[in-house]
Amino acid sequence: xxKTILFAASLLCALTLSAQEKSxxxxxxxxxxxxxxxxxxxxxxxxxxxxxxxxxWVGEDSPIPNINGYRKDVFEALKTLxxxxxxxxxxxxxxxxxxxxxxxxxxxxxxxxNNNWGGTVExxxxxxxxxxxxxxxLGCEPYISGNVGSGTVEEFSKWVEYMTSDADTPMARLxxxxxxxxxxxxxxxxxxxxxxxxxxxxxxxxxGDVYRRYATYLRDYGDNHLYKIASGASDYDYNWTKVLMEKxxxxxxxxxxxxxxVLDWNSKGSATDFDTxxxxxxxxxxxxxxxxxxxxxxxxxxxxxxxxxxxxxxxWGTWFEVEPGTNPGHLFQQNTMRDAMVASTSLDIFHKYTRxxxxxxxxxxxxxxxxxxxxxxxxxLLTPTYHVFRMYNVHQNATFIxxxxxxxxxxAKGGRKVPTLSATASKDKxxxxxxxxxxxxxxxxxxxxxxxxxxxxxxxxxxxLHSDKIQDYNTFDxxxxxxxxxxxxxxxxxxxxTLKMPAASIVTLELK
Length: 512
Hints:
The protein is α/β, with parallel strands linked by helices. The chain has eleven helices and 27 strands.
């Protein structure tokens, strides 16, 4: 109780909130920004816990309904999500993975111990063919992270040849022997993962030389052109970005960045058992990604004025303690309205920086960290984060519309500012304007006035994600506790829309 009182007092001292919150948003529909790349909505699938086995893949002989071994309910959910790009096989797993172990007859593939994540023994039944075929079926781009930490240049270069060569080469012939005559289209190639940590414990200057060597031998075959991605910084390490930009420059198409919403790596807190203070702390940490993006982009701008090198936030999201009774190395966590709010506000930020930021990949797609989907045996559920990504996919490949937000704000523990409202807007190729708004306040509803400059709306259609408590989540016994519903609590008059938004809610509108 004392902790709660102190937090409330600190909020009042920092910035007194009105009893009835009113906010306004100006949508500059008469102006336009950059195209929001669909790849901002990318996914990440690592061999970690049950992300792959039991999540994406159950095998053709499983009693769980499947499509060529891919779990049917998960596949259909991802199809609905319009996944644009998926990263695989890691993560830390990538720098322990030897691709030849995952090709050929499955009964002949050697098993391996997943030493990064719980020591789980994997049978390699899900390998190159299984992943790339899945991407083809989903209609998404594969993003391959190659083994630099424990692998060799030869191994990686032959993997590229195996996947993409259309010539009469040894690796192309081996691919054909394994059942795939035609090469796959593989664009995104990551040269290692977290080279500063689990990918080899390297220093930036050393990794720069390693990258240059590997990139030299990762070649284009036929009309397949590689987009090469250097292993970038963690969070606030702006020097790593600076060194790689100086050392590798035009030899890379993109440089990665990892940012997790974690307050204390030694005590990450529960995914479901948290108070309002913790809610605002996590939101403050997640919103800080904007400042991190700005500073990395500033470094890149200073050394690459023409913008030839892209920034890719290829790991992001919340990271809490695992669910009680689960393997600590499997990173299985639940997903509440707090996670949904992190997702929506993060995507709002990403939309603003697509001049440099061309891809993000939330960690991870199934059963791991801030997952879209959770599975347990034959049961499957969609998380609140999934619903945000589905509600927001109207912004994929749409033109960004600038917005100005005027709202109350508060200061969370640790000093981070948290606004009570976040918003984004875009216009799709058909000319339809979509608006997404998040009432971040944990316990106060808001009346929001939207002024749309340059457009008089005839009406709108809305959808809302909301639950009674910020701690609410879906379970296998109650999979729809947190799910989107039609939203009608708004009024349209010319170029003004007035909305009433309950506490901790997310709304998407399509203007008519």
